[in-house]
Structures are given as structure tokens and as C-alpha cells.
Amino acid sequence: MKPEHFALLRRRPVRIASAVVLVAAVPFFHWQAPTFYLNWFYRSRSVQEMGAGVGWGMFLVAVLFVGTLVLCAAFLSLVPGTRRWFTVLGAGTICGYVLHGFLIRGPSTWTSSRTTRGSPRTRAGWWSPWSPWRR
Q: What CA–CA distance (Å, rounded) separates 94 from 88?
């Protein structure tokens, strides 16, 4: 893509609409989360396995794709184009993005290996910040 394409996202009306879209997306997804089947998002199964016909499945996949593009464009339109005080912080986020997997998987690997050996701490239900999501 060319810089001119991103310049369209920098206009004031687009930024206002983007803020409205992102704010409206939060309650919508909070409302939809309990009933949303994650395999639609991950595309790990066919639409027939998820209980939809071919036509309806193609429609839902297209809606998810367009929704993803709209949310990405809304986010990109709100990213500042100039250098700010937090620009330096953003430069270091790639390290956090790459290394967060070690922080998440490390304790679960440590606790699961300890559990198989029968450590009293893990048998008693050793808690980690990630334990609620491991159920």
C-alpha cells in the first residue's frame, strides 16, 4: 500500500467515525462473547462442522473478514503520525510481543512438570496469574 492510502485514514471525519466504531465494538463484543463460537474466528473447522450451510457460512466468513478490516482501519486511523512522548515506548513493544509467550507458557510448563512429580505445592493448587485460563 502507498502512503496516500493511509492519508485517507488521517482525515478528521474518518478519525471521529473510527473512535465511534471502536467504542461501539466493545459493548457489542461483550454482548456477543458468550454465544460466539471461536472456531469461526480461528477458521479451524469447516462451516458444515459448525452447523451452517455453505451459503450462510460464506456470508458469515465474509462478514467476519469485513469486520476485521473495518476494525483494523479504525485502529490505524487513531494511531498518531507524529513523534510523541510515547513513541519510544512503542518501539519496545515488539520485544514484549515476541517474549510474552515465554511468560504465559513458562509457569504452566513449570507447574505441569511439577504436578507429574507430585510436588506438594502444586497438589495444593499452586496459583499463578495464568491458572484461571488453564481450566
A: 12
Alpha helices by DSSP H, listed for the chain, are: 3-9, 12-32, 38-42, 54-78, 87-91, 93-117, 120-123
How far is Cα 122 from Cα 115, in angstroms, rounded to an integer? 6
Place of cell 483494523: 72
Interior angle at CA 15, CA 9 and CA 17, nearest 5: 110
pTM summary value? 0.63
Q: One-letter amino acid identity for 74? A: A
Q: Where are the domains of the chain?
A: 1-79, 84-122
Distance CA 98, CA 114 (A): 26
Contact yes or no for 130/108 (Cβ under 8 A): yes
The candidate with the shortest Cα–Cα distance to 43, out of 65, 11, 22, is 65
In this structure, is the dihedral angle defined by the CA atoms of residues 77, 80, 81 and 87, taken in order, positive or negative? Answer: negative
Q: For residue range 74-132, what is the model confidence (pLDDT) as tens digits?
A: 999 998 888 888 777 777 787 788 887 777 777 666 665 544 444 444 444 444 444 44
Rounded CA separation 19/30 (Å): 17
